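User: quick one, fold this
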Amino acid sequence: MKPSSTSGPSDEGFEDEITFKELIFSLAGIITWIKGHILKLSIFIFIGLSVSLFWAFKQAPTYVAELTFMLNDDNNPQVSGLSGLLGQFGLPVPSGKYNVDKLLEIAKSRRLMDSTLLSSANINGRTDLLANHLMEAFDLTSKWSERDERFKDFLFNKNRPREDSRLDQFALKSLSSMIAGASQDRSNALLTTDYGKTDYIMSLVMKSPSEELSISFVNELYNQVSKFYVDKAVEKNKSIYNIIRQKKDSISALINSTAYDIADLKDKESGTFRNTNKVKVKLLESQLLRLQAASEEIVKNFERAQFVLETNTPLIQILDWPLSPLSPQKPSVVKYGLFGAFLGVLLFLVVIFLGQVIRVAQYNSL
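Assistant:
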């Protein structure tokens, strides 16, 4: 009688499984193969290291200037309402973050970049526009002159417009893009901005080949940003304040004029006061009382507008200015050494692979 066949899992395992013994043999084979090619591999690693380290040492040092500041701005009705609502439940809402992002984005806008670039600064004993200092530090006119010969001796002149403003526009756009980076990718920008996630302390960080240039640029940018932000934040309240102040000054002048008219009538007709003059005086005195009542109300409104303007003006406080001397920064030797070694190994594998492909092609052609 034949034994009955039963279906079930096989004790032999799957055919494509790799045993530990096979893994050890495979690793041993790889190590043996590397030993046989160790000289070639070393040569490629040496080439990669040499190229990478040579490039790193050839890079000019950069100077990083960091300026930190804080913003005290509660002039945000939406935030204030939300804070009040959640405050009833004992849940305080920090209002610091809501305008911080806006302020730092303003710092990278073309408008403020152009204003900063066209500001003067004394660097290395020479007073010139920051745009000209930057072009000199990065040798930009030589690069731009390859596409347009007019850039060969190009310089910005704030007081004298150029015949061809397109050169100025191109140069300003290029400088702004180099400093702030593209809006989609700011990883290679010379200027970086950030803020603390809990304290909202903001920072402007500028790097360039010149210590004085980095410090001067970041200081001037802060001045431009703080002035622009405060001016725009109080623009509406300041407009109301100026209108009420003009009315206050106007009614004060009218009160003085009316009072002098009354006194003049009384002086002219002293001793021979006629009824018509009495009526004029009475009318002027009645007008004066109305003007004085209106003036009192306007003064109250003026004080309110002044209070609102002062209390709703955002306060930007500097914490730390960048101070000289700054430590020069160069590319990391370790980082570029590892990159060069990896590049050498990769190049070695590519050469070995291409050699195998060529040998297979030659064999198949026989």
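User: anything notable?
Assistant: The chain has a mean pLDDT of 79.
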